[in-house]
Design goal:
This protein is mainly beta and 242 residues long. It contains 3 helices and 13 strands, in the order E-E-E-E-E-H-E-E-E-E-E-H-H-E-E-E. A hairpin with a 3-residue loop joins strand 2 and strand 3.
């Protein structure tokens, strides 16, 4: 089962890290920004399919609108977005009384030119009706059997999506007897940077190690359910490509 406190764990893997279809398993470790929520770890399956036009790479399924090339790609599709907040994962009794935040489905369009990728995604399931825009930069460097991929990204999160992630409604506050006050979260942003290292054991078997730090805009610490604005995460995996 996906751990909701670890926001979209497989997204640590850059989309260009697995350039071919593959199947594998990954172990994930991540801190949480939410109040009195412990560090989370999971072992998860990983499946990626790359066709000439169609692709699947959890949490995304999509279609290349123009023929994909090493230099550019234009794609559109749907994305499963797990809720980053699960009240049951907190050790705080008041936080535990808040309502669950549900997963959402987001339609996206993405354009990559060389090492630069832009993406725009909009909720289409009516969960929060929010959207985000993202700009990413990543460039693979080959060193013998290793591929090192440093990366950095900036993401703007609309007020609707941010409020669903970090806000507290009147009904939520009432369930805590007012101990947790209401909070309407404005639009926010986050910057993520890290590196992925891929080592080829054989022609078809790769191992991967990825580290990432994500820093949200400091205004999210105004939320009564947030303790920090920084998340450190780690992933290790093994993949068979075909």
């Amino acid at each position: 089962m996906l751990n909701k406190a670890f926001s979209m764990p497989l997204l640590i893997v850059p989309c260009f890290a697995m350039a071919e279809s593959s199947i594998g398993v990954v172990g994930t470790y991540s801190q949480s920004i939410y109040k009195e929520t412990n560090t989370q770890s999971n072992i998860l399956p990983a499946l990626s399919y790359k066709g000439e036009r169609f692709f699947f790479n959890y949490p995304e399924i999509g279609y290349h609108l123009i023929p994909k090339s090493p230099h550019q790609s234009l794609s559109a599709g749907l994305r499963h977005t797990p809720s980053p907040f699960d009240p049951d994962e907190s050790n705080n009794i008041d936080v535990q009384s808040l309502d669950d935040r549900h997963d959402s489905g987001m339609a996206f369009i993405s354009y990559r030119f060389g090492p630069i990728t832009t993406k725009l995604a909009q909720d289409v399931t009516g969960v929060h009706d929010g959207y985000y825009g993202q700009l990413s930069l990543g460039y693979p460097i080959s060193i013998e059997a290793w591929r090192i991929i440093p990366s950095i990204s900036y993401q703007y999160i609309s007020s609707g999506m941010s409020d669903y992630m970090f806000g507290v409604s009147q009904s939520d506050s009432a369930q805590t007897g007012g101990t947790i006050s209401t909070y309407d979260s404005p639009a926010t942003s986050k910057v993520s940077y890290g590196a992925t290292a891929i080592y080829s054991i054989t022609k078809n078997i790769n191992t991967m190690v990825s580290i990432k730090q994500t820093q949200y805009n400091e205004n999210i610490t105004n939320s009564p359910i947030v303790d920090d604005n920084t998340v450190n995460s780690f992933l290790v995996g093994i993949f068979y490509k075909f």
